[in-house]
Write a structure and sequence with these properties.
Glycosyltransferase; mainly alpha; 377 residues; 59% helix
């Protein structure tokens, strides 16, 4: 029997094997691309900053209006002194809402101040804003010793503004190497570790925790942690989004009087969107990533938007009135990404009353209309 015949017989033998026997070979794992982190880049990078400045100079909207609000707010923060908490620990929101919000005032104020002032510096190059932002940031690094585990959500979507702000100041001369090292060490325990803790939850806590993990991975130039956060994001949304595009761990929420399924779905969506935005800055496309059911973030957003327009059609807690209208600034990003006409109309309504629109709500996603808003005609 010659060599050619032997090869043919072996080939036919392989074809006769069950498909699982043929595939029972070790598959090469996809290798993630090596990343060269840059700063800033969590929300915006240097090129985007130039584009925003140009839009402001031209009087383009929404940048022109948002810029005026930014500077007005930054000027107010210049008049105050930081008031860091020794430990971030608040009474549970649903057990004592009034006390929770009262104790959070300085926390919300100072975190928003860091990011707002840092962003004002990037828009104007006025060092007064950068110096004040650093004053707030350094005070918290110096005096805040930690975060209660029960407040890992607050750390993930509010305290994370410290990371956002630090990213914008990273190349500022007065932000010394020692300052940065101290900040990274502090943020590891107060923001990244709390994000990891929150990420273990299947609901909105997890979405926001992963967002905090992603931000810290970027500020700390940690490629392994960055890709780990991406994997966690995919697993989380796969588990949370059902075959209809609804966030299964939010839809039955209620406060004893009103249904909160739509409201908490909006909150969860915001966390997912901000993570996707950060990853897009490094050419990782989560906006078009599909679950095993073939669904994307767009499908989830489309479903939420439909129930905002017609809350009576929401299929959960039918006897309760659903709380609606809780549109976060992440819709600016979603519209920028998908260009859905109906979303543009809603954004136009929201922008018409900027003080009622949570373009800045002392949390991650602040000032998104300024940084990522596009013209709506």
């Amino acid at each position: 029997m010659n060599y050619h015949i032997i090869k043919v017989l072996l080939y036919l033998a392989i074809l006769s094997l069950p498909y699982y026997a043929q595939d029972n070979q070790p598959k090469k794992e996809e290798k993630n691309e090596s990343i060269k982190f840059r700063h800033p880049s969590i929300m915006i990078d240097d090129q985007q900053i130039k584009s925003i400045r140009s839009a402001i100079k031209r009087g383009a909207e929404p940048q022109s209006t948002m810029y005026k609000e930014l500077i007005k707010t930054a000027q107010e923060y210049l008049q105050h002194q930081p008031q860091p908490l020794k430990k971030v620990a608040f009474p549970p929101y649903y057990q004592n809402k009034e006390k929770h919000l009262e104790m959070r005032k300085n926390f919300d104020h100072d975190n928003d101040a860091v990011y707002t002032l840092a962003l004002a510096y990037q828009m104007t190059q006025d060092k007064t804003y950068a110096d004040k932002s650093l004053q707030y940031l350094k005070a918290w690094v110096r005096d805040c010793e930690g975060v209660d585990q029960n407040d890992s959500l607050g750390a993930s979507y509010i305290l994370v503004l410290m990371v956002y702000g630090a990213d914008l100041l990273w190349n500022y001369n007065s932000f010394s190497k020692d300052d940065k090292e101290a900040f990274l060490k502090w943020a590891k325990g107060t923001i990244d570790d709390m994000g990891k803790l929150a990420s273990q939850r299947a609901n909105n806590w997890g979405a926001w925790g992963i967002q905090a993990m992603t931000a810290y991975a970027i500020i700390s130039d940690n490629e392994e942690a960055f890709y780990k956060a991406i994997d966690e994001w995919k697993k989380h949304i796969e588990n949370n989004m059902d075959e209809n595009g609804l966030f299964r761990h939010e839809v039955t929420r209620y406060n004893g009087v009103d249904g909160q399924g739509i409201l908490y779905s909006q909150f969860t969506l915001q966390g997912y969107v901000l993570t996707a935005l950060m990853c897009q800055n490094y050419k990782v496309d989560l906006f078009n990533w599909e679950t095993s059911a073939g669904l994307t973030i767009k499908d989830g957003a489309t479903k939420i938007f439909s129930y905002e327009a017609s809350p009576d059609s929401f299929p959960y807690n039918k006897k309760l009135k659903q709380l609606t209208g809780n549109f976060y600034s992440g819709w600016e990003i979603l519209y920028n990404q998908y260009k859905v006409k109906e979303w543009a109309q809603k954004l136009a309504e929201l922008r018409a009353e900027p003080l009622k629109y949570p373009y800045r709500a002392n949390q991650a996603g602040a000032w998104i209309p300024l940084t990522h808003g596009v013209s709506i005609k």
